[in-house]
Amino acid sequence: MYVLPRVNVIDNEHDVIIEAELPGVAKDGVELELKDGELTLVGHAAREADARGRRHINERPNADYKRTFAVSEAAIDTGKVKADMTNGLLTITLPKSERVIPKRIAVN
Fold first, then answer.
1. Distance separating alpha carbons of residues 65 and 38, to the nearest angstrom
2. Which of 31, 71, 83, 101 could share a disulfide with 42, CB 3.0–4.6 Å?
C-alpha cells in the first residue's frame, strides 16, 4: 500500500523545486526515476516491531510513499537534477533548461 506524501512545489526563474515529507524514510529508502515525462518518487518507510506493546490508535500510516509528477523533459536539464534528504524532508531540484529561462535583453 502506498500513501501520497505531502509536497510543496516551488517554481522560480532557474529551477523547479519539489519538497516531499517522508517521515520514517531513510536516505537509502528513496527511489527517484525520471522517465517518459514523469518523475516518480517512492519512499520505503522503515518498519520495526513496537516493543512497547500493542497499539490501540494508529493514525500514522504504516505504508510506503509514492507520488508521480508530470515533467517536461525538454524544459528541465535532466543531467543536473539533484536530490537531498534531511530529517525526513526530500528536496528535489530540477534545473530549468537554458532554452526556457527568460533572457533579459538590454535596450540601447
1. 16
2. 31
Q: Is residue 72 part of a domain?
A: yes
Q: Could you give the number of structural domains in the chain?
A: 1
Query: Cβ contacts of residue 106 below 8 Å, gap of 6+?
Result: none
CATH of the domain at 37: 2.60.40.790
Q: Which three cell numbers stand for residue 35?
A: 522517465
Q: Most distant CA pair in the chain: distance in Å?
A: 75
Structural domain span for residue 64 = 2-48+59-95
Which one-letter amino acid corresponds to residue 90?
A: L
pTM of the model: 0.84
- Print pLDDT tens along the chain (108 aa): 899 999 999 999 999 999 999 998 999 999 999 999 999 999 998 776 667 788 788 777 678 999 999 999 889 999 999 999 999 999 999 999 988 888 888 998
